[in-house]
From TrEMBL:
It is an enzyme of class 6 (ligase). The keyword tRNA processing does not apply. SUPFAM superfamilies: Nucleotidylyl transferase. This is Tryptophan--tRNA ligase, mitochondrial.
């Protein structure tokens, strides 16, 4: 049986990168997959605490992400939508996987290495020995593997930046199955056809929640005025005309990518570049804004309505937790018996 699983961190209302890279696929799969395919989407609050969080803020952000997922069109009747921490089996399987996962593999992962190189209390040749970095951050990929494997997911729709984590999840399957027999299912990645969405203020780095500048990202609940203003001030370059060349012209190329995703005629970034080759940056940006505003239309209003409806959100939370616990329990029974627990 096909099982789709994916997750998003509760960092507040998702940005355009999350939407284009992953969430839009989550919604589309509701129609593309047969009704027999289980669709399971998690708001990964246990991953969120790998960096310091204020408890009240975290609670609020989880709610925001839940309301946003419903606002983009995820149907709680069709999908299981739940908070990771409401299903203890995720943490339990993580521990079991940790006992066959290799430290060497984890320490070579790019996200960890980039955190390590930013950490002044450790040096690269010293490795993590002197580091203040947390064990939870190091083992982040093991928890992510557990998320996927505990639901026996066959397909995981994510953006480009999650590929290495998915490879690690497959590695966990190999290690576990080698030790205990063929019990876990290796998941395939469904990568978004669109490129990574880049920051509007620094188009050589990806659009992210952690970037300081608010103007670097578009939230899917931004007003049309916000969108126009952020796209209008997006960093481009002073070469005349519009062309698609991600290496030489990252700013324009990113706007072309965004335009292409929301283009009603589904033209590619390169095709759009030809059409707008001689257009001024100002007019081009207005055209991109129009397409984006049309593409996100309705999300903001639905989000505001849902956010005000606490009792409805609570009901969805409870129902999601119940369905996800049930799904995870099947795997835990198999795994525990295989391990002898
Ligand atoms: P997170 O919360 O950072 O991002 C959620 C999804 O959005 C995609 N994404 C992007 N895609 C294109 N361009 C961008 N600029 C961009 N920024 C983010 C991400 O690829 C992701 O698909 N570790 C995961 C959460 C997670 C998970 C899982 C995912 C935990 N367990 C199990 C899949 C399966 C993360 O931090 O995603």
């Amino acid at each position: 049986p096909r099982v789709v699983f994916s997750g998003i961190q509760p960092t507040g209302v998702p940005h355009l990168g999350n939407y284009v890279g992953a969430l839009r696929q989550w919604v589309n799969l509701q129609h593309e997959e047969k009704p027999s395919t289980k669709l399971i989407y998690s708001i990964v609050d246990l991953h969120a605490i790998t960096v310091p969080q204020k408890p009240e803020v975290l609670k609020q952000r989880k709610r925001e992400v839940l309301a946003a997922l419903l606002a983009i069109g995820l149907d709680p009747e069709r999908c299981t939508i739940f908070y990771q921490s409401s299903v203890p089996a995720h943490s339990e399987l993580m521990w079991i996987l940790a006992c066959t996962a290799s430290v060497g593999y984890l320490s070579r992962m790019t996200q960890w290495k980039s955190k390590l190189s930013l950490d002044s209390s450790s040096t690269l040749d010293q490795g993590p020995v002197g580091s203040r970095l947390k064990l939870g951050l190091f083992s982040y990929p093991v928890l992510q593997a557990a998320d996927i494997l505990v639901h026996r997911a066959t397909h995981v729709p994510v953006g480009h930046d999650q590929q290495q984590h998915l490879e690690f999840a497959r590695e966990c399957v190999t290690n576990f199955n080698h030790a205990y027999g063929n019990h876990l299912v290796p998941p395939s990645t469904i990568i978004s056809p669109a490129q990574r969405i880049m920051s509007l203020t620094d188009p050589t780095s990806k659009m992210s929640k952690s970037h300081k500048a608010q103007r670097s990202r578009i939230l899917i609940t931004d007003t049309p005025e916000d969108i126009r203003s952020k796209i209008g001030s997006a960093l481009t370059d002073s070469t005349p005309g519009v062309s698609y060349d991600p290496a030489a012209r990252p700013g324009f190329s990113n706007l072309l990518e965004i335009y292409s995703v929301f283009d009603a005629e589904k033209r590619s970034p390169a095709q759009l570049a030809e059409i707008y080759a001689h257009t001024s940056p100002k007019i081009f940006k207005e055209t991109v804004s129009d397409a984006l505003i049309a593409g996100l239309h309705g999300i903001r209003d639905r989000y505001l309505d849902l956010s005000a409806n606490e009792s409805y959100l609570e009901k969805i939370e409870k129902e999601g937790a119940r369905k996800a616990q049930e799904s995870a329990q099947e795997t835990m029974d198999i795994v525990k018996s295989a391990v002898g627990l």
